[in-house]
Amino acid sequence: MAVVEAGGQVPLTSAGGTRDEDMCKEDIKKLYLSQVVGFSGAVTCGLHVHPDNDHIVFPIGCNLIIENIDTQTQGILAGHTNFISAVAVSASGEYLATGQMTHMGFKADIIVWHYPTRTRYATFTLHRVIVQSLAFSPNDKYLVSLGGKDDGSVVVWDLEEKEAICGSPSTMRSAGPAVTVAYCMDDDKCFLTSGDNTLRVWKLDRVNRKIHPQDINMGQMKRNVESILVLKGDIHAMCGTTTGDLLKINIQTGLLSKHGPTKNRFSQGIKCLTILKSGDFLLGCGDGTICVYNFDKLAKIKKEKVPEGGVTSVSTRGYGHQFFVGTTISQTFCVHYLDFKLELQKTCQPSAITDACFPARCSDLFLTSSKSDIRVWNTANGQELLRMTVPNITCNAICVRDDGKAILSGWNDGTIRAFLPESAKPMWTIENAHTKGVTALCSTFCNKRVISGGGEGQVRVWNITKDFQRMADAMKEHKGPISMIKVKRDGTECVSGSVDGSCIIWDLSRFVRNQVIFASTLFQNVCYHPTESQIIATGTYKKIGFWEAYDGRSIREMEASVGSINALDISEDGHFFVSGGEDRLVKLWRYMEGTVCHIGIGHSATISRIKICPNMKYIVSVGTDGSIMRWDFPNVDRVSSRRREEEAEMSASSTLAMSPTGQNGGQQEEDVPMEDGER
Question: Which terminus of the chain is more exposed, N or C, with fewer CB under 10 A?
Fold first, then answer.
């Protein structure tokens, strides 16, 4: 079990296994995880305020985050092998439960966490493909889980015995799949499930290990119920539907009591609902509306709408004076009941992050690219500062001009776009720059040229001025998409890596190939050493390779991962480099020794990019789950032990060479080592 405290030391073990046992034996230190930015907003009811009223709980990819509301300190519960699909918090707050999705034909895990100790309490595996919804009984005796449409079952688990009590098909054959489950407020043996044209009350027979369903009679009315709230006393329950109305049902009689509103329904359905101390209901809707609703009067008391996206989670804090809202585009808001104004807490990337970069000589900001947008972040606090949006297309590559006057981006529609860094307004556009999308991008240090790589395998050089952008030449030797381009400081050469298994060093004055490197891999990343005498590259063959930039001669290769290595970056002084990939580990290496000195554990999905800030204070890594993690760069000796030994040998030999004939007065001087004080 891995519990990663952001702001604390990171244990080097993982839930369900010890994937890093070999590394632990080598006494490798851990990277200090200082901040996590991310939220899986697509998970319905994924954001919860813990009953202690001091923490919020929400998923990021495969991990569950526990964040202190006041201090912003974070903890990570890691154990799932795929993205979390359901989250539940017990009434007492002692237990948390998370369910995951998995591949077709495999079973999905449910993990129950013990909140006070932040440890794994139990693991349940029975549902296929996905766990749709979870709910705890009021006295923490049982956990009920609902499978997805490929599983179609509801299962009750005994938390004390840590075993399944019984299970049953969740719906009748004539109904659609069930999507949510809710327990009664006081009765440990009664819960409800709902979905497409189905709404059932279940009774648990613990002695005979059976559950018995009772279908709610709604007459001729047919609804797709997405959310359930059982009212105090366990007599009535409120249900939110996709058609935007509320249903009030009697749990004891199994009949529909009332429904409404009949007009001016909530657009795109009621995704989540909770009750306030006043007896009014707090609704979160698919169109982004947050509403305080009086069901008896069928009146909307207060209403607000998030700027974009739909609401997927609403959770109250304390007596309902404050509540938190999660949206489909991974934004979280805090709302105070009295003024009912949305206060943006954080923004996160809702989809996979494709690229990241720091501006030249600037460590205070960094940029990320994703589907439909480019975002500028504050490195210190993780707040979004600026956003450049181009709807419905994906930005594959970004870079900042050396003078910082333009943000350059390459998109999958084959266009290169430049934006002003302060206003995010478009600066210029090169349309049809590549026929199969722009996959790599780099700017020369003189700011007069842009080098781009495309999905068709061409490397193109563009002359850039204020008035025009023209192609200088196209170099056509790669047979596959370009994954990365890096250029020398003097702008005379660049290196491109491609998934065709080749890295080519290009002469930018003659636009011809200088050297080519072949390997049995799909190259994902390539970097120049700061001295520009060597090149290191990584790919799908799980190794890191070193080559001479002058003649392309191979220097060495190192086993570096158990999966593909997608991310690579070298520190400004050239003493360290960092890598990441499918193993979800951030590894800091000594360049001269070629050994790992630090490892960071926290990512729940494949690492797509990783960067060291120019002042070597932080390491920023991003993943395909949309998460951004900031690691403190360790305070380590910049010179490796091997380098110190070589320098000591060179110093000793030069001292002997400088003494006349290597003798003193015709006698050989005895070599006496100096003490620390003498140095």
Answer: C
